[in-house]
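#struct-help
A.M.: can someone run this one for me? Single chain, 260 residues.
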Amino acid sequence: MLFLLPPSETKRDGGAEGTRLDLGALRFPSLRRQRTATVAALRSLSGDRDAALRALKLGPKQHAEIDRNRSVRSSALMPAIDRYTGVLYDALDAPSLSASQRDFAAQHVVIHSALFGPIGALDPIPAYRLSHDSRLPDLALGKHWRDAAAFAIATGAAGAGGGASGNGSGAGLVLDLRSEAYVHLGPAPAGSFFVRVVSEGDDGVRRALNHFNKKGKGSFVRAVIQAEIDHADLASLLDWAASASVRLSPGAPGELELVV
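D.P.: on it. Structure tokens below:
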């Protein structure tokens, strides 16, 4: 079973003293060449503050983000799931998870960074600023990541445990909670399920949520991590969801609806 999460624009400062970025320590080592190129392009861009502000779509008061990017190779590291902040990650609340729950997250949660591509939940990373729609010199993020990231995700899904998904893909159960923009940077393997967060009105009609969908995703992933069950297939996940009062059900083909 594998969960694919988006990153967040905001990052927590700090990290373990004396640590520095080691691309070889990240999950999916097949992506090292792409990671090296993206980090180099980001640092190059950071040499021109005005160009960097435009390329990263930052405001005039966000110069500190450029400083972060300039020192991305030398700044201190912390686990990715702790580094990212914002609505989804606040709801997931990784720092409060137990040691065994964090180990479970390390095996079953992947975060899709625009800078590093897909990474493991506990992979040590620095603070940085780069989004899916940022413009790097001579490097188009979509083309740069799409095939390589898709291959890495498929490989990770096949090796994440939980057995066959029962959908003919040959991979384990994969739940894609990324935004569609990050899906473009590396599609999930065939047979995966895209999770849509919806609300249900008094009339029984389900409607997609915008801002609050992030909180729903974070709370859902936290509940699965806390249960520490590696679901072999969708039926197992749905049975657990029903027992845990999580309103998860099949939606359109290839999709699940999470009602919050």
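A.M.: thanks! The chain is about 35% helix and 15% strand.
D.P.: also worth noting: Residues 141-158 form the longest helix (18 residues).
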